[in-house]
Amino acid sequence: MGFVSKLNPAGSALMYSTYVTGTVLDPDAGNGWTVQVSQPAAIALDSTGHAYIAGTTLALDYPVTPGSWYTNLEDVGAGPGFLTKLNSDGSELVYSTYVPASDLTAIAVDAANNAYVTGQGRLWKLNPTGTALVYPSTVVIASLGRTAMGVAADAAGNAYVVGADRVNIGATAGAFQATKPSSTSWSSAFLIKVNPAGTAKTWATWLGTTQTSNAYAVTLDNAGSIYVTGSADGGSIPNHTGAFGFFTQSSVHPNDQFAFVAKVAPDGSHLDYYS
Fold this sequence. Notes:
The protein is mainly beta and 275 residues long. The protein is 0% helix and 41% strand. The protein is built from no helices and 20 strands. The strands form six sheets. The protein has a four-stranded antiparallel sheet, with no helix packed on it. The protein has a four-stranded antiparallel sheet with strand order 7-8-9-10, with no helix packed on it. Strands 11-12-13-14 form a four-stranded antiparallel sheet, with no helix packed on it. The mean pLDDT is 88.
């Protein structure tokens, strides 16, 4: 069963710990689950200490709150995602809603307490009360399911999404990598900026090597630079001429992947470093 725990600053004691789950398994959901009916996958905090939890549930009775975005399981199908907001001491739900996709991967919260959730190549932005989307519709990030892996938001409400795709992300002219750096048989990492209204991609760039690469997490600094972490099988990094521009696989561990951290310019046009 899913749970959320808050530790004190020293990590020496619990401030709260609570289950985040339902108890009645949906027989139509399958997957062989019998006990683990709700599975949180990501957590974020707002400035006042509320916790936002995103995940997937197979429970018929997952707790959703009246008036939230989706409250009827029949409207979202078997095994949907969920987004739950807890108050600062973990004692009650502020809101809780189903999300019409399984395999949610990441969550972020902006300064206005809008929540951003990714999963299955999609992005949703919910209003501060959890009652409706801010975007006019779901934003499609990538062509393959389960490829939007991380999300961050800036103070203006722009969203930054990372993941991997094999086909097309709609990379924009002037971006760091406007052309997919690897074969279509391999996935390549990407970074996409979505405007606050969710009506357009401000810019989109590949962020990969000439072999398989994946991006898993993203964050921002106060100057607007973007930091991405992920993995790559090896290969060169097209359009990057700085340090660590080429990965070579070791003869000792020939099939290992390399972890990477990239710092991307605020306009997505170049890398400050790739390490």
